[in-house]
Amino acid sequence: MAEEAQYKDQVIPDYQDNPFIEALPNLLSPHKVVEKLAFYPQYHQNERKLDSHYRIYMVDRLFQVFQPLPMNIELERKISRTLRQGYVFRNPFESKLAQGFCRDYYGTNPVNPKDDDGFYPSSFGFTLIGISGLGKTSSLKRILNMYPQVIVHSEYRGIPFSAYQVVWVKLECPHDGSIKGLLYEFFSEIDRLLGTNYYQKMMKTRATADAMMTVMNQVVRNCSLGLLVIDEIQHLSMAKSGGSEKMLNFFVNLVNNVGVPVILVGTPKAVKVLQGDFRQARRGSGLGGDMVCDRIQKDEVWDLLVSSIWHYQWTRKETPFTPEISSILYEETQGIPDLLKKVYAITQAYAISSGKEEITPYIIRKVAKENLKLVQPMLTALKTGNIREIAKYEDICMTGIDFNDFLTRTKESINLDLRAKEIKKRQNKMKQENLMEEKKEAVLKLVDLGMDAKKAQKIIDTMLSQNQDVSAEGMVEDAMALLKDEGMKEEPEKKGIRKVKGRKEKQSTANPLDIRTIVEQGKKDNKSAYESLKEAGYIISFKDDIFSREVVW
């Protein structure tokens, strides 16, 4: 989104009375730069109490952490200075800027750095080189986002001044490695920012690279572009760009003829593109300043980086940060920030998914060994310090270690485990329901046999506390056997009581079909109540259940 220009007083004389510079954010001290760049996502200790399938997703939050390091502070300073210096000699209220517009418009007498009287300085831009995984691109994005990308001017100190100021544009070299592809991306980005249609015009006319560069010169002037950042320049191909001379002319044209500062960013492989004749030309054109990003050394900067992410722990058991942990992480990642975050994230995901719920040196080494196979040759070379071996892998891609892939597999494993637990839970529930049905059936059968309901309930509960793998029929049989044993013990005692009380037993004619008579008769024959009632036909076996028999008509 475009912002309305807000002009600020400038302390540095070179930056005064220039609306393009005064509309930029104020210069920042190193302390303020750290505050602006740093980002620490929210975290609460209670999150470690959540279920594993929630915590696995929270590990992603590690990749949001941004801890400013000395390299980031230096890069912010260089970008801030480069941007402002580029505008110093493009003050819209200076006559020479208007002369430049006229030359572009009529296409005559283009600005030549050799005979120009100081219109453009020769100290524009720089190159940023470093292996992947050091945070070059992420640092650039955070620093550039400190500036509004488009500023709208309408009036400057009472003077009508209508202009669009595109503060910065960041491009990525196309994978086909051609200058033409890069130019197409430039026009596409300008169209996105300003609502123009340069890209479509270039496509319709099938313009050549030379013609597109001429139009680019005009567009850069019209939108007062402050800074052009070209990332992944290792993808540039001299062959597809028409040779080193044509590529050289492209960059020199941007700096000398257009006057826009250019920052070239790439891996060590890009050195092949930038060396030789190109290197000499870069020095003369203002692209000679190199900033080389090296891996972090094992010192207080490394400990600062590790400690900034260490308290983001989602394992049940919290592991304190120790010198041993710091050394192991450095040994496994060799001071590469991207690898540090990935190893730490995968370590936590593994600890959570495996149920170990603790970060240990063993798990860190195990995770690094299993998940850093693609970059092990590079890491081994860095450990040994062998320059020749390091050169072989100077452009190895650290982004090949895919945390998301590991996380997906881990989440699938957790989901399978959860499904297995859910199935087991349902099975246990069904088993309990079946057991309750068996228990209910057994109690009812005992009540039908004349037993008191409370006593039947108590006997069955006692049996189930000892063995739950029993059917209703089995419980009834065991209960009747138990009653038989108790009856044999109680019979002499009952006879003694009757004798003491001196009562005469009441003689009565018993009904042979009464179950009490059947049970009493069975006792005399040393049979259990269950056996007696079964013989009399009062108890039907499950296999003899009339409802399960086939009906014959």
What's the structural blueprint in terms of helices and strands?
Layout: E1 3-4, H1 19-22, H2 30-37, H3 52-58, H4 70-88, H5 95-106, E2 126-130, H6 136-144, E3 150-156, E4 159-166, E5 168-172, H7 179-194, H8 198-205, H9 209-222, E6 227-231, H10 244-258, E7 262-266, H11 271-274, H12 277-285, E8 289-293, H13 300-310, H14 323-333, H15 337-354, H16 361-371, H17 376-384, H18 387-392, H19 403-448, H20 453-466, H21 472-501, H22 515-524, H23 529-535
Parallel strand pairs: 1-3, 2-7, 2-8, 5-6, 6-7
Antiparallel strand pairs: 3-4
Describe the structure.
- The chain has 553 residues and is of the alpha/beta class.
- It folds into three domains: 3-37 and 69-293, 3-Layer(aba) Sandwich (Rossmann fold); 38-68 and 297-401, no CATH class; 411-548, no CATH class.
- Helices cover 54% and strands 8% of the residues.
- The protein contains 23 helices and eight strands.
- The protein is elongated, with a radius of gyration of 43 Å.
- The N and C termini lie far apart (89 Å).
